[in-house]
Write a structure and sequence with these properties.
The structure is a homotetramer. Chain A is of the alpha+beta class. In chain A, the strands form three sheets. Chain A has a four-stranded antiparallel sheet. In chain A, strands 3-4-5 form a three-stranded mixed sheet. In chain A, strand 8 and strand 9 form a beta hairpin.
């Protein structure tokens, strides 16, 4: 199953699925794709009883794309030893063996491994609690904007809203990809397209990784201008709603002393 | 004189000063500081009869700080040969001599020279006309926001508005630096402080160099939220006014084919 | 088959194998691994009738590891459509389809694609003829050193010597990995280990990609010092032999004007 | 005075000059240029009673050129307050005042300041004792090569040999710059030229900063080949002499545990 569905902005209750498998005494392994979820939404490989977690570098880990990795349960490793299906990505034995001495069976993407080491340091320095709370707050701000526009959030159930991205449905008759094209060409901002059966029906706003309130305000401004230019009638200003949200919801967890020591000057200087 | 006054957001009419010097038949050299002006506001060393132009890497040339340079008229070079005042920055003879063979009398900042070469290529690829028009348009958008807030633009004369930055005056009784502190701490955005006798009376919003409409919307959003949090009563939303401006004023000059070929993907991907 | 065998320093005659397949009228596809060969040794996918060429970023293309790619013949593409074996790396249809519009079915390693673009520009600016001649000359210099040491080159047949690396056999009783350890710990130089059945019997010296005569002299100096420190009796100085070779064999093909214009200063300044 | 004379490869006894000034009860300030000396040769601003030390980023601090800085004694600061000569580089009062709150009176070269912070961490992680011993050992290896060639070291007094660079005198009738040109064009290695009255009579080999035994072997190989190609008759092989030196003189101080932890893989991989 997928932890955070990147194409829709919906999260899944992994622990509940584990409980259902266990209740049914079913021997299936629980495989979870947390490519876009890891380090932006709460995720607990061991505690939730996941057998195989799959993630990658290019989302919450704030790196360029290029590496993917697995976390494995003992049960998954055991199952792998006797599995008969042809496998390549899931063939872990050689990797596990060589990792013991710090090596890899083939040539790994070394520069991304250095980057991953740094990204993990950054996340742990902030504290995972702080990082996850930050994404929840951003997501609420973006959803406040979508509601103010009078548009529909693709994820119908608030219990599984994604802290990573929000899918924005277009009114009947509006081609979402035409809106995306205007926003890209006029405002240099590239939004995610609708995939599969919602192609042309929605676009996606990301609020993950190395962002802050103002990068989201930039994105929302681009959306609001682009929607209007595309002729979409908006109920109100999502930009004002998001500002109301961000201004009235200070980050509750304090910046850690380590962060302040490490970053005496802001990393995003857009003004002089 | 100063081409673009960074501390106030006011430009000067260099050509008019040259004409006044000439009309008075005064032998003075015309020295112009265009550190923040070059490559963001129209500037013509030869055509305007400037004797010494001074600029640097860190503004419109889009580089880190670290190098400064002069353009010289024949008259300035001649005057330098017989000048009696002690000089160091203005002692060009050794530099001119060694530059003939591509060298420098002391160890130059080589990495910024490579960067400068690239920055000039970028500016010329866009076309200076395009670059200068872009800054004028951004400045109008930011001033639209300031007016909508009901605040005063520091530069009183529209004829000399700066395309590079806008000084925003605070109402009586508001400490501009307290506002800046809120914007920095809450929204990770560092605004320029008031200098000299306007210290604490204003802050500055930059709209120069490697920006786009949405980086300015980010900055204006940070200002609007910070002003409100600081208790400043705003007449209206500057963010809405700026969006109206940017959406209703498309960039009139087309992107050059070279740009499109060079940049098939956007350089500022803030959404996924 | 393998174009350049990285573990031994042996090249293969691809064109001859193609002719043998054709003479036997055998329908097999000719798959060639040119991961370490491409852009350092002569290789001709079309002319030699290769069906599938496999290469990667991290050897002659002078990039960090992280991407691998295929070149395909029409015959290979056709065969793929009806192939019944499970396949993942060899499943090209979706890639071919999306490449038409400049996209990729999954998230590609974008930063390495930018690097690959630059690496290709560099190679074509030098000229492939120049690049290939350069590697042949380096290989001869390194082999001159090995012969002067009185050691054996792993590749027994001069007709298939690799221009990319040279395998150096140790005398009986010498542990090649102990020699490698000394060279690494004392001289900060990491040599390739013997793989498979020559483990501990040989080490490998690379002479590929972004090297020059002096980086090879550095490597050979490290080897010569390390061999002596390990107690290996050398017949003579390989370093002197390599210097004789490099000094008496100037690069026959001139540097292109484009290179000189692009690189007025040396890229490897080790002295001041 | 100059701590390490970059144009000749001679160091000065700073402490002795201080004692001479004190013995003469002379009020002069002791100003020392340690641009090329700092962090490669022993230097003690406080202990040696220096009033003003001047250094820069581009030598032992292993950074690109672009910043220079001073260390000041209380006596120098006091003298500065009443000095009547025009001054710019030596006008410290505004800098000292603003540094108290972490600022700078003009725009500093921020990216080099970040680099300087990292360079200082690297030096202190190795330990200054280790760094200085390393340079002394490199210098002896390079001088062993010059002696083996039968050429003269420019610095006539072994007591003041520089650990940073070695000046190599040419025999009568040999144009040092012609030798340098061959080494640059044939071997991509740029050596320092003779300055002032030794122009054309010598060249300089640097052994400072971020080097290792093999980068020096690369440089010495380039010199030996270039000298021979220029027709200089050499008494013997400097390259062999330097290898003898480096192989028989292991670095006496162990690598620190911190270094090994920080750098599990070599930073200079020249072989594969």
């Amino acid at each position: 199953m997928v932890h955070n569905e990147t194409s829709t902005g919906v999260t899944s209750n992994i622990a509940a699925v584990r409980r259902a498998i266990d209740a049914a005494k079913h021997p299936a392994l629980l495989l979870v794709d947390t490519i876009s979820g890891l380090a932006s939404a709460d995720y607990r490989h061991d505690e939730w009883g996941v057998d195989v977690s799959i993630s990658g570098s290019q989302k919450g880990l704030m790196l360029p794309p290029g590496i993917s990795f697995n976390a494995l349960s003992v049960k998954a490793i055991e199952a792998s030893k006797t599995a008969k299906l042809p496998k390549s990505f899931w063939a872990w034995d050689e990797i596990i063996e060589m990792n013991k001495t710090g090596y890899w069976p083939s040539t790994p993407n070394t520069n991304l491994l250095y980057g991953l080491n740094e990204a993990c340091d950054m996340l742990l320095e902030h504290g995972l609690d702080v990082v996850l709370a930050r994404h929840l707050r951003w997501a609420e701000g973006v959803r406040a904007a979508v509601r103010a526009w009078g548009l529909q959030i693709q994820c119908a159930d608030p219990a599984v809203y994604s802290p990573i991205l929000t899918g924005v449905m277009m009114p009947e008759g509006v081609d979402a990809d035409a809106v995306r094209k205007i926003i890209y060409e006029r405002f240099d901002c590239s939004l995610g397209t609708g995939l599969g059966k919602v192609k042309g029906r929605m676009f996606r706003i990301g609020h993950l990784g190395d962002s802050n309130d103002l990068t989201l305000m930039a994105a929302l401004s681009g959306c609001e201008m682009g929607l209007k230019l595309a002729g979409v009638r908006l109920a109100g200003s999502g930009v004002l709603a998001a500002m109301d949200h961000f201004a009235s919801h200070p980050v509750s967890l304090p910046r850690s002393p380590a962060m302040d020591a490490a970053a005496p000057t802001p990393t995003r200087v857009v003004l002089t």
